[in-house]
Amino acid sequence: MVLSQKLHEAFKGTVERFTGPRTVSAFKEKGVLSVNEFILSGDNLVSKCPTWSWESGEPSKRKSYLPPGKQYLITRNVPCLRRAASIEEEYEAAGGEVLLEDDDDDDGWLATQWNPKETKSSDEENLPSMENLEISKKNKTIQSISSYFGAGEEEDDIPDMEEYEDPDNIIETDPATLQSTYLVAQEPDDDNILRTRTYDVSITYDQYFQTPRVWLTGYDESRMLLQPELVLEDVSQDHARKTVTIEDHPHLSGKHASVHPCRHAAVMKKIIDVLMSRGVEPEVDKYLFLFLKFVASVIPTIEYDYTMDFDLGSSSH
Amino acid sequence: MAAESSSPSAILQFEAFQSSIDEGFWTRLSSLKLDTLGIDQSPIPITGFYAPYSHPGVSIPLKLLGESLPPEAGEETPVSPRDRNKCLVPGTLYNTNTYENYKATITKGLLQVEANKIWEDINSGKAEDDCRVLSRFFLITFADLKNWKFHYVFAFPALKLDPPATLISLRPAAKCFTLQEAESLEAACNQWRKSADVPFFIVSIASDSNVAIRPLRDFAVCQGDGQKLLFGFYDPCCLDDHPGWPLRNFLALICARWNMEKVRFLCYREKHGFADLELSLVGEALISAPQDLTKIMCRLAESAA
């Protein structure tokens, strides 16, 4: 699996080097996007949903076929209140079906939860309670502490810095006194603050598949980077490790989880066909809105999608 | 979500600023250290990013990315179109060579030096021209490159009001305005967000319900004419009963420069990227004179990544 993935990456890289990026539109025929259409659709997403921004990414990784300031799209700090795995368990416990697999081919994952509103509403009913939230104490090597130093002229009522020169010391010896002098006085009680994972969701242009591609960068409850392996807990379990893989981000440092784009064009083509069969003429600048809806079935608990309020041209409602 | 818990009495409490550092920052710091810095431990100016609260339930952290560090020699200059989701905050990086140096750098003296920068910028009037300096932060790091381990302390200095400000009221902004004012305020905020990256501002509401947003340097102009004034800031905090950290130094400025005792403030927050007055808060705080603002407190968060 890993080897084949590597081989494929090498192959893809070679193909990308010898073939230019797509310039002719084949959006309705094949469900793919040209570079210009990607930018057009991205501009539309940014203007309608301003939590999304264009980014330039790392200068050394910049793609020449994209404008320097529009290399990829990102929305940051998106909450993820519950693990996808736990939601599926609950569905199953309730006798509900999680996945509707088509038998004929691999397109089944389109059918999973095509109506994101349903997922959403069930989420909202089960508003997260504190019990559901994992307070991250798992990773012992990462300590995130907050402490308070007072400094000023009246040396007397100030904790002696000598005691605190060693940060370990701060954690062990003193939080109580510091809290009683500062925390309670000027900061709200920590217990009132919801602790949850968050995600940066980014969309890049995949030159080989000629489609957008989604990447997930996770952060734990104290905003420390999540290992990509742990990100898989927030992916629909039917997709973890299959359609969702961990790879190098094309514009950022490090390994990130990504929804593999090999089926994207086929799925988008199906969505477009459905729209057209309803007499709706899909517009290419709405491509990313449609795309994000289908990605929602893969990452059901990451609440990034605000596009559902927008008219996609559908006349079905 | 959060309970009504403004006890004890009604001291104004702020949610601490969170911090978050991306892998790109560490990658870049490593190559900067290897290629350029060597054993140089001089402070380096860096840039942090934040935005107003926008996604339900989670406060926005101050974020460090690869581009937070200065570009390396010979590198393409970073393309940075103004990005409404990345409001810039100036900061200073103290990168140390050894773990011992790192620990020795975390001193009261340094906290004082950094916080004094804010105090000086307030007193010189610089903070009214470039209000981003009010949220100035600093970072002490030790990059253990052999083990790819990074020790760091993130600090947000705050000028301490003494005695602390007391809270008179704090309510959703939607409940504090007439319908006309609310509409005008929303429109003005959205326009402000689109056209500028200025996280502290003055909201002035004229008697005809027309709302104008102005930069801090216009304070004198905003006086009189029966206008209602509010001091607004991009609030990264998600709590409905507390303002976020950036208000602290803003209050210090208001107190030190404009001598106000009763301050009305607007915690500007968004929903889906647009002004939302249900989520935004309007508060009223009392700053009692005399104030000794030279006291400094600092929020430190230490971690290893």
UniProtKB/TrEMBL annotation, chain A:
Recorded GO MF terms: Atg8-family ligase activity
GO BP field: autophagosome assembly; autophagy of mitochondrion; glycophagy; nucleophagy; protein transport
Keyword terms: Autophagy, Cytoplasm, Protein transport, Transport, Ubl conjugation pathway
Chain residue ranges for the region called Disordered: 100-132
A Pfam family it matches: Autophagy_act_C
CC terms in the record's Gene Ontology section: cytosol; phagophore assembly site
InterPro entries reported for this sequence: Atg3/Atg10 (IPR007135)
Subcellular location(s) of the protein: Cytoplasm
Annotated family: Belongs to the ATG3 family.
Protein name according to UniProt: Autophagy-related protein 3
UniProt source species: Papaver nudicaule
